[in-house]
Design goal:
By secondary structure, this protein is α/β, with parallel strands linked by helices. It has 12 helices and 9 strands. Helix 2 (55-63) links the parallel strand 1 and strand 2. The relative contact order is 0.15.
């Protein structure tokens, strides 16, 4: 048979490959209904004298009925600690790396361990655990997973790093996992791997159960297709104003927010 339109055939093939690359977990999906339609306090409810990712911020979120999103990475002595940045510079004005300090040394700045945070949250609100990592090193995964295995509350994990999600796919397949992303081509960094993450084209490897995407880019094709075609929830991050909330309302399924009112937002 003579093929007359190679261009059309190539376009169809490319479209099929693209859809295959962004396809999330389809079979044996865990129940994620408890995370849909929820509002999560970004790094707890912080502000004023209450620091982000602190025990006080988690207590306040629990008190006001919000879910919690928090960040986990490793200290120099291999403990899972709750802190966002790779260094203390922004928060404490010191150019010290988190990975160079022990959990005890970090505690002097008010930085809790994951175990300490879980004791406070105690299953009272749903929890999103963002696992930090910028390379193929996934040593944070087994350490955090061992702690979370003992936790009785509802939680899921998320990460920008596909290596981390791949570890969870292989080693904790029953744990709900989500791909974090944004428009890296607009906001940087712009390396090829970030283009793939931005467009959710590592999903075929990690098979996420949800997407957590920068609220500023709800029209990203891969995000829309994951939500509408593959029917997985998309969480907006990080919503900070009433205007942003209004623009997000019908385009996302859950919300990670800052500046939350003391009375829980009803969805």
């Amino acid at each position: 048979m003579k093929i007359k339109n190679w261009g059309t055939l190539a376009a169809v093939g490319a479209a099929g490959a693209y859809l295959a690359s962004i396809c999330p977990r389809i079979n044996n999906r865990p129940d994620i209904s408890s995370f849909e339609g929820k509002v999560f306090a970004h790094r707890g409810m912080f502000g004023g004298q209450i620091a982000e990712n602190s025990i006080e911020a988690f207590e306040k979120a629990v008190e006001n009925g919000y879910g919690i999103e928090l960040d986990v990475q490793l200290s120099s002595d291999g403990q899972a600690v709750v802190f966002h940045d790779s260094s203390l510079l922004r928060m404490y004005g010191e150019a010290k790396s988190v990975s160079e300090l022990t959990a005890k040394e970090l505690s002097e700045y008010g930085i809790p361990t994951l175990r300490e945070a879980l004791v406070v949250i105690d299953g009272k609100v749903p929890l999103i655990v963002e696992l930090k990592g910028y390379t193929s090193d996934v040593s944070v995964c087994p350490i955090a997973a061992e702690i979370l295995d003992e936790y009785k509350g509802e939680y899921c994990v998320e990460s920008f790093n596909p290596y981390i999600l791949k570890w969870y796919k292989e080693c904790r397949p029953d744990v709900i996992r989500g791909q974090l992303a944004t428009s890296f081509m607009r906001e940087g960094p712009r390396a090829p791997k970030y283009f793939l993450i931005e467009n959710l084209m590592t999903n075929f490897i990690t098979k996420p159960d949800f997407i957590a995407y920068n609220h500023k880019y709800p029209g990203k094709l891969s995000v829309v297709l994951c939500r509408k075609l593959f029917n997985i929830p998309v969480i907006a991050w990080t919503v900070q104003t009433a205007g942003e909330w209004s623009r997000c309302a019908d385009r996302f399924d859950s919300y990670i927010c800052e500046g939350l009112p003391k009375k829980r937002i009803k969805k």
